[in-house]
Amino acid sequence: MTGFTPAGASNSNGEPDISASYSNVQYIAGSGSKFFYTQIWNTGGIVLHYKPLTVLDLAAGYSYTRATEANGITSAASYQQFTLSQYYSLSKRTGLYFVEAYQLAGGQTLGTNGAGDIINATADIGDGQNSAPSSPTGASADWCRAIRERIATFSVSICPSSISSVGT
Question: What is the pTM of this model?
Answer without folding.
Answer: 0.71
